[in-house]
Amino acid sequence: MKKKIIIIAAIVVVLAVMLVPIPAATYDDGGTREYKALFYKIVDWNRLTEDGIYEKTRVYFGDDRKKSIDELWDEEAPEPVEHFRATIIELNGDMVVVEPVEGEGERLSCEKIAFSTKELERIEASVGSVVEITYVGLIAESSPGQITATSWALSKNYRHLEYTDEWLDKEAAEIYHDDFFGDIVITEIYSNCFFARSVIPMPYTIKLNGTLSEDWCVGDQVVVTYDEAYYDRTNHRIEVDFLTVKVGTFEMDPNACYKPVIYLYPEIETEVSVKLELNGELTCTYPSYKDGWKVTAVPDGTLTDAQGQIYNYLYWEGETYSDYDMSQGFCIKGEDTAAFLEDALAKLGLNRKEANEFIVYWLPIMQNNPYNIIAFQTDTYTDAAKLSVNPAPDTLIRVFMTWKAADSYVELTEQILTAPERQGFTVVEWGGTELIGD
């Protein structure tokens, strides 16, 4: 019996030596550990790479067990992920041929590179489009060179090009001061200028003359100092010479009502007073609100104040404390937002001019989101921002949109959108706010 126990114990020891891995080495590459047993080896990879830390546990048998850690890494290392910008020169079904732009390292390898888009997202690309391409592995030596692309997207980075078109007529434009706009988001970059939009939605695009350093990219939010500001009010364009640039920190206020505007359409020329009772605080008005607005309105909507200044509408902005209802609404792809708003605003009673001004105000910060969750508020908004008009209008249309960006589609009960028929003295108002967070 005693001999039998000794034999069993010996077998257990032998099996333990053969099967149980013991620590063999720890490497100064980020913390990779190696464990060895008689018939196999375990490597707990924890190696620093250009793309971060590679973490994975592998078991190696047979000849692999005898290989050094560097030999194993040569087989284990993930293929490098590379990026470059290029101009499309050919489109043949799922195959694309591009020319890397000046300054890209890939241009040193080949003047032309081809790849398949069969497994990639479809984009609205055409010959001449500049695209951002991500690929793994090396460029195959062929003519043209071949890569395995993992993604591609239209680019707004044109640093390899000089912008030569005339943006606005400075002789016809208005000259403005040096604090016309605040935080902006970069939308396009050229070698000699860049374009941007205001973080707070505004119906104009900004061209900033000067070379922007490689530290800044499309999509960055920045604050700039500038001079020589010109405003083309007809085409909604601004041009400035920028001096300095730094990171912008402004955030949209989730309690703010941005750009509600009020249109007045009397049947005949009429003196009109408008008052707003806001459950909150007005932060900006134009013309100045004071104790309400008093203007002379004519049927086409033109407004004139006591000093003879002409306006297209009354503008206000403010903070409220409303709890908006997002239980019903719409979830729309960012790229489909313009078409959706055109249809929705028509159902809500806005005419083409009013809808156009609504869309050019909000679309720039909505169209590039994966999805937008949109709801049009009714009593929640009108109770928080009560409007008094004298003489009383025959038709009152108030459109207020609340929305937030979403990464994926959200199922919602669809709102039914209606509006009263325009009759007699008509007052129209539209505005909106972006909701931040859940």
Give structural notes.
With 438 residues, the protein is mainly beta. It folds into four domains: 2-76, no CATH class; 81-155, OB fold (Dihydrolipoamide Acetyltransferase, E2P) (Beta Barrel); 174-247, OB fold (Dihydrolipoamide Acetyltransferase, E2P); 256-434, no CATH class. The protein is built from seven helices and 29 strands. It has helices spanning 2-19, 62-66, 69-76, 106-109, 337-347, 352-362, 379-384; strands at residues 22-26, 33-36, 40-49, 52-61, 81-92, 95-100, 113-116, 130-140, 145-154, 157-158, 174-176, 184-190, 193-198, 205-209, 221-232, 237-247, 256-265, 270-278, 280-286, 293-297, 303-304, 310-311, 314-320, 328-333, 371-377, 385-390, 395-406, 413-414, 426-434. An eight-stranded mixed sheet has the order 19-23-17-29-27-25-24-28. β13 and β14 form a beta hairpin. α5 (337-347) packs antiparallel against α6 (352-362). The chain is elongated. The mean pLDDT is 87.
What's the arrangement of strands in the largest beta sheet? 19-23-17-29-27-25-24-28
Shape: elongated
The low-pLDDT segments are: none
What's the gyration radius in Å? 32 Å
Total number of helical segments?
Answer: 7
Present the secondary structure layout.
Layout: H1 2-19, E1 22-26, E2 33-36, E3 40-49, E4 52-61, H2 62-66, H3 69-76, E5 81-92, E6 95-100, H4 106-109, E7 113-116, E8 130-140, E9 145-154, E10 157-158, E11 174-176, E12 184-190, E13 193-198, E14 205-209, E15 221-232, E16 237-247, E17 256-265, E18 270-278, E19 280-286, E20 293-297, E21 303-304, E22 310-311, E23 314-320, E24 328-333, H5 337-347, H6 352-362, E25 371-377, H7 379-384, E26 385-390, E27 395-406, E28 413-414, E29 426-434
Parallel strand pairs: 7-9, 10-12, 14-16, 24-28, 27-29
Antiparallel strand pairs: 1-2, 2-3, 3-4, 5-6, 5-8, 6-7, 8-9, 11-15, 12-13, 12-15, 13-14, 15-16, 17-23, 17-29, 18-20, 18-26, 19-23, 20-21, 21-22, 24-25, 25-27
